[in-house]
Write a structure and sequence with these properties.
Layout: H1 3-24, H2 32-43, H3 49-56, H4 60-72, E1 76-80, E2 88-92, H5 94-98, H6 100-114, H7 120-139, H8 149-152
Antiparallel strand pairs: 1-2
Helix pairs in contact: 3-4
């Protein structure tokens, strides 16, 4: 199996998906990272920033900047936790809620484009394989990672 090709194709999918979403969301002044956060909030409204960062395996500082930008654009609002003032829960504003359907249709269109001409069974297997690969990637510890001697001989 050509493992370089697999990595190369993952990279193409990631970069082209990012470019597609960014271009399609331009009328709403939403970037890719903001899009991802909004999509997450549609199913997890009321979460804290740290929960978003953890679920997305994203940098906490970057998530904080994107949340702040979404708040400035009036797509979300942060409300302080009643019991622990350190936490702020994130909720959609009416303006953010209005984008739910357009952002879903945007994703549906992109996935249809990516899977065009593919057998439905292959699509299902591909999604299943990508989920398994993503799970393995998230469970792989990166702290202290070094090339093993047998690899660099």
């Amino acid at each position: 199996m050509d493992f370089f090709s697999v990595g190369h194709n993952f990279g193409i999918l990631e970069r082209r998906s990012r470019a597609y979403i960014t271009a399609a969301c331009a009328p709403w002044r939403i970037g890719y990272a903001e899009y991802i956060i909004l999509r997450y909030l549609y199913d997890h409204e009321g979460v804290c920033q740290d929960e978003i960062a953890g679920h997305l395996f994203a940098d906490k500082a970057q998530v904080a900047r994107n949340v702040k930008t979404l708040e400035e654009k009036n797509y979300i609002v942060r409300c302080q936790d009643d019991h622990d003032k350190r936490f702020k829960h994130i909720y959609l504003t009416p303006q953010g809620e209005v984008l739910r359907q357009p952002l879903q249709l945007l994703l549906d269109h992109w996935i249809a484009r990516l899977t065009e001409g593919m057998d439905p069974g292959l699509v299902a297997k591909t999604i299943e394989g990508m989920k398994a690969a993503a799970k393995n990637a998230t469970e792989t510890p990166l702290e202290g990672l070094q090339a093993k001697e047998e690899v660099i001989k």
